């Protein structure tokens, strides 16, 4: 319940949260300004007070989702453990797998991808993630944990792709198990103890 | 141009093709029966003559897309070469990467995933692909090309996930290169010549 003394930043926040939910549930094309206002319990005037319109609101919603994902990933990647262990922790961290990746899923929304502005936070977040992972792989190579022939940048892309594709497999089968199987395969290939 | 002597199977076919295009461009929620009829140049009566409605037509469209993907993948996986070479050929086969996987993308459509009937052809196709790849990995293990400790089923899931996630990376960055980098990383991990 919102108090009567609700500030304008509360309204702005509720508009962003409602847009995030709707983008998630219905995609950009299925998210009407009317539905956003209804869900946020806000009037048209207050929306145009804070945002230029649906694209502007969608951008704020996507940015917030991207920031959250980055913070969650950093929490694991900057955590304790060897490079292999931190990559494993990232791959195995608890996820709502059947919902899909809040950021990755946006790449399958035709309207998001058609707009350079809406695509930018998605691209930047996945880029950041790959660079962070590439650094950890390089660290592991220096410590002799990964083979010197491996290329950090490529392995990082494979790690991110396995996670993103794992969501696809899980959603297709209706079960999170399919995600876990793909992760297990990647970890067996990355494992310093595998007997190649 | 369609001739006046157009048969009913031509109409059915055009309805299916129009639905495929629209599902691809606009998603299920954005695909109205009206838009399908307009694109197919067909009347409402002819649609209901062939199909029970939009869900039925969407199912026929998804089934056709799934069959095509299966035939394309089989063409490479059943081709010549060692197990590693066939997996490499599958990973490197020419793709319209920026469009995304016609089958995998459907898993990000909330309406497709909410329907067991529409989800089934997607699930079956990805399942078939994983089983086919798992068989090839097992073949490679028997031939000493892959480490005996690798599990065919998990590696197959990692391969499919890398491809599906590769589309996500490519679409996020607006460039097919991101797909190729992830594939390169996976191949370096799978390579019989890597020096682990």
UniProtKB/TrEMBL annotation, chains A, B:
Keywords assigned by UniProt, alphabetized: DNA-binding, Transcription, Transcription regulation
PROSITE patterns: HTH_TETR_2
One Pfam entry name: TetR_C_13
DNA-binding region positions on the chain: 32-51
One Gene Ontology MF term: DNA binding
Keyword set includes NADP: no
HTH tetR-type domain span: 9-69
Protein name: TetR family transcriptional regulator
Taxonomy of the source species: Bacteria, Bacillati, Actinomycetota, Actinomycetes, Kitasatosporales
